[in-house]
C-alpha cells in the first residue's frame, strides 16, 4: 500500500473524516461523494470499490455531520452551500498536497447534487465527473418514486399512500418521505433484487473503520441531515443546464425507482457536452455496489 491515511481534518470549522488510500505512486486523485444527505459510505467503498486503489488515489470524505464526521448542527442551520464550500476546500487541499491540477469526482445520489453543482462552479478543478443514482429534478424523481410505490402497495399501505403528499411540504413531510422510501426499498426499486438494505449494512458491522458508536452516529447524522436539508434539496433542478465544461459520465441502474434513472437518460440525451452513459442492467439505485466489478472497470479505464 503506497498510502493509507484515515482521520479527521478541520474543514471550514468542522472536523471531517477523510480516508486516502492508493496502491500506486502518483496515481490520479478520485474523490467520492456519498449519498444521503448524511448517509456515510466509507465501509461500502472500501469493500466494493477497493480495486480502484490500484488506479487512483481514492479519497472518501464523510461529509460534515455524517458518520465519523457527526456533530449536532447548531441553531444557525446548515445549507447545501456549506457542503459545496467544504468540497471546494477539500479539493484544493488534495490538489495542492498531491501536486495535481485536477481530480476525478464521483457523486452518488445526494452527492450527485453536490457534484453537478460543483463542476459548474469550478470546472478547472475537475478532470471528469461520474454521477450514479444521479439527481436531475428532485420533485419529478420524488413523484416517480411515489408512483412506483403506488403501483405495488396493497391494503393499508395503499390507503396510507393515498393520503401521502409526495411534495413533502406538509406538517408530516418527514414521515411521509420515510414511508414512501421504505416502500420503494420493500418492493425492490432501490437495491436490485433485495427488499431491504441488509446487504449495505453488513460492511459497516464488519468494518475496521467503524465502531458501534460510529454506527449510532451515522443513524443520527442521516436523520439530522434529512431534517435540515430536504426542503432545499427538493428545489434541485438541472434540466436547463445543457452544457458542462468537463466530461460527464452517468452510470445508472436500469431499475432505479429510488431516484428515477429514466429521468437521467432523458436529461443525458439533451446534453451538448462531452458525455457518456452506461446502463447497469442488474442495478437500481446503487450500481457502484450492485455491479461493482463493472463499475470499477469503467473507472479504471478512465485512468489509463
From TrEMBL:
Superkingdom assignment: Bacteria
Domain (AB hydrolase-1) ranges: 28-152
Cited InterPro entries: AB_hydrolase_1 (IPR000073), AB_hydrolase_fold (IPR029058), AB_hydrolase_sf (IPR050266), Peptidase_S33 (IPR002410)
Keyword tRNA processing belongs to the record: no
MF term (GO), any: hydrolase activity
Keywords: Hydrolase
Similarity remark: Belongs to the peptidase S33 family.
Name of this chain's protein: Alpha/beta hydrolase
